[in-house]
Amino acid sequence: MTSPGDTEFRHAQLRTEGSSLHVVEAGDPAAAPVVFLHGWPQSWRSWRAVMELAAQQVRAVAIDLPGIGESAGGPADGSKRRLADTVHQVIAGLGLRGATLVGHDVGGMITYAYLTNHDDLARAVIMDVVVPGLGPWEQVIRNPYLWHFAFHSIPALPERLVQGHQAEYFGYFYDVLSPDPARITAAARAAYVTAYASESALTAGFSWYRAFRQDAIDNQQPGRQRQVSAPLLYLRGEHEGGDINAYIAGFRDAGLTLVSQDVVPGAGHFAPEEQPAETWRLIGGFLGP
User: Fold this and answer.
1) C-alpha angle 132/232/288, rounded to 5°?
2) Secondary structure of the chain: what % helix, strand, coil (to 5)?
3) Domain 4-287 -> CATH class
4) Which residues are CB-contacts of 52 (< 8 A; sequence separation ≥ 6)?
5) SS3 for 120?
6) pLDDT exceeds cutoff 70 at 285
7) By C-alpha distance, which of 2, 160, 166 is closest to 151?
8) Residues β-bridged to residue 233
C-alpha cells in the first residue's frame, strides 16, 4: 500500500453529450468507486488531499464541472438537473457500478439532483450547502451575508467586474468562510484563478447561481420529491452557520428516508481542504467496511 504522498493521479478527458470533461482518478480501478464534485469557486483540486487518503481504500474519481478548468462545454443555464445528467454520463462512461457521489457546495446541489433523478447510486454525501427549494432554503437566501447569491445571478455584470480580479475576489470568500484561511494554500488559490481565468469559465460558475430559481422549481415538482432509497450523509464544517437539524428536516420532508448527519471538526465552509483527514474519516466511516 502506498502512502498518501505517493498517490498517483490519472488524468483523462471524457466525452459526454455537449461536453469534454476533465476526469482525475486515484486508487485501485477495481475498488469501490467514490465520485467527488467540487463547488464554487473551486475545481477538482479541492478534493486532492481527500483523494490521497481515499485512494488507499477506494477508486477515487473527481471531475472539473463543465466549463471549469480543463473541462469544456456544458449546460448554458447552470441547471443542477442537467449537470446531474452530465455526471450520470460520466459514471456510465467510466463503467462505475454502485458508486458513492460526494458533492461539496454547488456539487452538493448537483448530488441532490442526481439522487432525485437517477437510481444507480449506492449512497451519497452532501457537504456545506443548502439545496434550492428544500428547507431552510427560503431562510438562507434572505441572509444578507449571502449577498453574492444575488450578485452572481445578475447577467454579465459579475464577469465584467471579476475578470482580472479573480485572485482578490475568490480570496475574499476563502478568507471569511474559513477559520484558518491558510488552509486554502497559495498553490490552491492560484490553481482556482487559472481554472476560472476565461470569461466562459466565469460564466459557467455564475450560471450555477443564475439557475437557483429554476433549481428550486425543479426540486419541488411533483414526482421529484419522491422517496429516495440511497442513504445520504449531510456533512458541514464545525464553524458553518445555521442549524444543521433544519437541513436534515428539509431532506426528510423531501422524501429522503435514510439521512444522517455529522460535523467536520475545525472546518469552516471549505472542509475538504481545511480538514481533509477529518472529512475522509467521516466519509469513509459512512461507506462502511
Assistant:
1) 155
2) 45, 20, 35
3) alpha beta
4) 4, 5, 7, 26, 276
5) coil
6) yes
7) 160
8) 125, 260
* 36/64 Cα distance (integer angstroms): 10
Place of cell 431552510: 136
Residue pair 254/225 in contact by the 8 Å Cβ criterion: yes
**How far is CA 223 from each of CA 107, 130, 138, 193, 258, rounded to the nearest angstrom?**
22, 20, 21, 39, 18
Calculate the alpha carbon distances from 169 to 31, 98, 183, 191, 193 in Å: 39, 38, 17, 14, 10
Which tens digit of pLDDT belongs to each residue from 15-41? 998 889 999 999 999 999 999 999 999
Distance CA 175, CA 181 (A): 5
The grid coordinates listed for 74 are: 456544458
pTM of this structure = 0.97
Output the pLDDT for position 168. Answer: 98
Q: What is the pLDDT of residue 67?
A: 95
- What are the C-alpha distances in Å from 107 to residues 41, 81, 277? 11, 12, 20
